[in-house]
# Entry
Amino acid sequence: MMLPEPQSAAETYTLERLRTLKNALIGNPVAKLELVQTDPLAVHHVVNCLNSPSTNTPTSEWTPIEASHVLSSLCFGPPEIVRALLDARAPEALLHALSICAPSGSANASVALRSALARAFRSVVVAIANVAGPHNESNGLGPFPLKGDTVVIAKRALELVFQLDSLDIFLPYLTDSSQGISISICHLLASSLRSSTHRRSVANWMSPSERALEVKGKRGWEKPETKSHSSGGWIARTMMDLVKRDDIKASMREAALLALAAIAKGNHALASSLCLPPPEADSEGLPFIHFANVRLMGCGETIPLALQTPYAMFMDLCKARSSFVRLAACLCVTNVLRASSASPPTPRWISEAPYTLVGVLNGMISNEEEVPIVRAKACFILYQLVTDEKELERTAYVSGSLKALAALIQKLIPPAETPWFEDEAEAMSLLLEAALTATASLTLHRDDNRLALLQDSPNIIPLISRSLSHTRPGVRYAACQCVRALSRSVSVLRTNIGDSKLAEVLFEIVKHDGDERVVLVALMGIANMVNDFSPTRKILIDSGVVRKLSEIIKTGDEEMKTNSIWALRNALYHSTRGEMESIMNELGWSEFSSLLSHPKARIREISSAAVTNMMARSDDVKFVLESLPNVLSLLQQLVQPSIDEAATINALKAISNFSTVYRDQVISEPSLLRAIRDSILHSSPSVRKAAVVCVVNLVVGQTQHQEIRDAEIDVALAGLIQSRSPGSPLGTTGAGGSSSSGNNLSVTVFNTSSTAGVFDGFGWENDKETKENARTALQSINGK
Amino acid sequence: MDYLVIEGYKTAAEEFSKEANLDPMVDLDSIESRMSIREAIQRGDVEEAIEKVNDLNPEILDTNPQLYFHLQQQRLIEHIRHGRVNEALHFAQSELAPRGEENPEFLHELERTMALLAFDSTPDPPAAIAALLHPSQRMRTAGELNSAILESLSQGKETKLVGLVRLLCWGEALLEEKADFPRVDFLPGLGTGKAKAE
# Structure
């Protein structure tokens, strides 16, 4: 169907034109993009039709209904269309229309109109959230994110949607008489709540009448702030009520569970309230409902959802007949478990939940009768459950997840001699991406899981290597994550990866992949593979990886730069002089110098670690000084209170190495010595440790210490050694401390991490090694 | 009731609902919409079917690229069937080729459909190509669209009766390996309208 001809700004869209436009756009992403590109005012015209002058007659409602359909359809197009929606202020117009059509509004709107508006509002907000980010983990990597001011405007629009006035308009639609409308709002919450701030705003929302009651009970001048109830707030209660009902469609139950999962994510208070034990727990702490289930199961009866605790109900729904309801319930339990972090002793029904959950997910992953999208979502939920949780990674392994995933990956990847299917359905590609993503998350933190995977599935490395050449960026990204995870194991690097061509394939990705997100993760794998103990180090260096990394450092964005420097840092560790020269010739000393003083903390940290690695041997110290004459002053800049801890520690280590060869240069810099002294008094034990070691290297075996004393380093060491009782006054050297000059030291104690610093009343230095080193240094200074 | 609703026998469903005092659990007017959409495809008017399904639920085709492609493919087939070669070529170029670029899994079907033009004047085209012009192709497309509409209304895609029969046949096949028993014979019922158990 052809797009209608563009109109002038003066004309308004008729109903017929809207219908023609709708039928031309639905299902046709090209037409949608063409519309916004060729007729910039089109979306404005459509938005203007939302709030037609008279919307209170059945026939006049059709214009805003059709306009809503057009807006909904546009949201299924490419992300570039979102800018047109934002410029036309579509969210604001839809909110206005919804406010008029609300039960408390002025119009007696039909179900058809309310339904169309709710659906359009959901589509627009989700499209905006996809642009504003972060991306939804349940949907895979997704298309390449937009950059530039569209993202800024999208974020601003999202703030508007989740502010109190807007919530007052659309949240009450959750209890609309039409389930379709409730479903739209539930999906809006499920898909567009991406930040903890927005989640809290929604979770804590109270209706205006409830807020008025709250205020009435107070003295009157407090702000009517929203407050969460112990049962989780209006939203949680409403969602729970919806889920418990017997007379709702499976799609309604699914939508309510997904919305609940979204607001429970990262919400400790809500998650804890959903995990509350039932009132009649037996002596073992088992919930009464579970026991009742056991008793009644023999009779073929089950406890109605309405009588179950929230937690029991979720677990029950994890085994629902509908696959999508099962998935939604699993996601809900996942987010609740991760957010609740019950303090020990953990109730048995909480500690056993992951096993049940993983069992359900494994069942869906392994079920070949299940549609691919369901299996993919099960993989993504498994990933969200175990990510960065070592114990859960092991739980999943013990429950058979890795075996199920490896078997699935095996089935999805064609034999080595067969090219990738050009006409592979997108759903199958997404499934492969999901399986690889879950595999990576299960092996990221546990060496036992990595080794178990390779033992149970010896051909997994070739499969992952094949996946690195997939046409879909999401699959390549997930495969790179697998490589990154597996390459964290020394034994795997030395054997399985060392024997494969994985390093070369990964390097090809770094050189040629068009998707930056894939390159970013590939760099992480490369960083592991250039370590000195890895057989892939030589292969990569000979292949020219250093030149490529240097290029990225000079021209890439911050994330790419960071990962590349990290790889170079690893390459410099235990490198030969020849390797070091080769690496620095590619990068350039001036470029390296600028990295040491980069505004970003992480870059400074990694660069300073690289300097430490380069000066590990005495000969190399001379080489570094000759190549970078101002290295000492660059390091001194990193030993400042305003600098992050990690960079300071690395700089102190580097200075320590430097001083083994060029002690005189160090002690001839009073400001540097004072910076070292201040580091001895740092609130971080790690910084103090590094500073004391630095002083040890400066003083042990030496006789001349006047400069050290002038900087009052001996005073600081003395203070470090002695214990303090709680309540001792601040700003002194401490009980019994004395400096050679006889003056009390007025020290500046800076605290870069928390308010509990060295004067927290719990003592000075607890680390025995640091204290011992401090004594050794002090004795040398005092000539003992 | 489930069979009558899903298969689209609205009047029968209404009468059955009254006589058996059963709540149909669905809006019976939606049956009429679905049936008119199915009939439009069965008579070859795919454009009207698309307009009607967009009126019924505008999200169905936006969220189901494969279904949309098959509907557009059917439109192309209708152009070819009526000898409108130029329109067919233009339609394939403007509407179908972009779908193939967005979703490479559709390319094979697109090629098969375009091959119709190559075999247009051939008396005996290959079976795989000729099947596209057979009425069953329209039925298949109509069935796919009907299933999508039913799914969007949270109804089953397939009648429970068909599922039960399938389960019965599977169970009988398993049992046959272990024992002799009287099977349910549907054949007389299919021919005369009466089902008779042996």
